[in-house]
Amino acid sequence: MRTIDHWIGGKPTASTTHRVGPVYDPATGRQQAEVALADASDVDLAVRAASEAFVSWSQTSLSKRTGILFAFRELVRARTDELAELITSEHGKVLADARGEVQRGLEVVEFACGIPQLLKGEFSDQVSTGIDSFSFRQPLGVVAGITPFNFPVMVPMWMNPIAIACGNTFVLKPSERVPSASVLLAELWAEAGLPDGVFNVVNGDKVAVDALLGHPDVAAVSFVGSTPIARYVHERATQAGKRVQALGGAKNHAVVLPDADIDFAADHLTAAAFGSAGQRCMAISAAVAVGDAADRLVETLRAKAAAVQVGPGADSTSEMGPVITQQSKDRIIGYVTSAEGQGATLVADGRTIQADALKDGYFVGPTVIDHVTAEMDVYRNEVFGPVLVVLRAETLDEAIALINANPYGNGTSVFTGSGEAARRFQREVHVGMIGINVPIPVPMAYYSFGGWKDSLFGDTHVHGPEGVRFYTRAKVVTSRWPHSETGGGASYSFPTAN
Ligand code: NAD
Predict the structure, then answer these.
(1) Which residues touch 10 (CB under 8 Å, ≥6 apart)?
(2) What pLDDT is recorded for position 328?
(3) Residues 198 and 298 reside in one and the same domain
(4) Is 281 a catalytic residue?
(5) Which atom of ligand 1 is nearest to the CA of 226?
């Protein structure tokens, strides 16, 4: 069995212990590799490599850092297909979707190539007679990234290109279900000329996460994953005095108003609910149909869900692949069954996939459930599978109130022909990322990505300008260069400008 090791200090590194976990191909249900699971001593090795590398990397000129970022960008671009194939084989999503994920990650690298501009400080001339003030930002030190299974390339790349461009060194703990892409990214960083120890990968589970959260030499932690673990990481890391941003789960609503183009809305909702088998933190999992939009919307969704091509991600005719594990499949089917038991109406039922070729993989078909209410388990929990529930509201106000009562606040969208309704929606919902006739409003790399409420713990969103702020801290310098003959004049009262 192939073993996927760590990447520490610029080279593949085996664990000091022999704990391993299985890596499956979700399309077939077969184990394809085992991944090393780090313990505290492996994590310490990686943090020490990163600490040593920080000494010179933090002093490396902006133009040298930028040169490496440009080279990394070219290498990732050239190896996109290979990265996409790794994603598909371990995650299951279709290849076109995997290529899209690499592209969105690359956009963060491109943003980070502009780091000389992004790190510019401010300068105020003559704040007092003969005195100038200026600010600049410096890196934090060793920073850690802990990432989920659903975006093996994009989510780590929300973090490491910006952290590294800012002069930090990085320890990535990817999801143990999809470890290979991170190791390939480490190879590409090395090929781009990044010095050993600046980017490290420790594979592992809770043991590795806890070791990072407790390590005194880790200055900051970026986490993306489910809400209970995000809350835990935020609490533990802040208690340990670290800077932390922890992005959690989601329940993303799309409101469909009666004046919307129903066919357009249903088309986009189907893609947003079932793309990547619903395993996106920005997937639409709840449609809120307002007034007489409901019956028309549900009938259109029924037809569109039935037309989705389900199959292995590597098959170019597939539009939707499997979910990540057998446990995920069982959990998703459990929520569908509970909704049926609690009085909802199944419009499209993906619990059984008939095709023989798919029977060993973790496939769940596109599922649409109507007449769901806010009390049902399928609505109250993040299902994270290809399940779209439909709730009905009388008015836009009622739809907004429903969204605002939900504990999550990652993404949401509204489908309407009315600018006035859209503007009211964008101003009144308590959600971080909003789409107007756009179902998955993932911000471009030069904006920052982040939700509200239980979808993000911490103060800063990821990538974009807030990413640069997260990975640096500010200094303000007040300077005077007196003539040697001037001297004296010191005052014992608090300094004020003159
Ligand atoms: P997860 O929370 O199970 O795992 C995320 C990371 O935490 C992994 O690296 C994992 O090894 C580690 N981990 C798991 N259990 C842990 C524990 N008990 N203690 C310490 N560390 C632990 O999430 P997942 O299943 O890999 O990913 C899916 C989740 O991520 C969904 O909830 C999804 O909404 C969320 N997500 C959110 C965003 C966002 O931007 N808000 C983006 C992608 C995914």
Answers:
(1) 49, 190, 195, 196, 197
(2) 98
(3) no
(4) yes
(5) 32
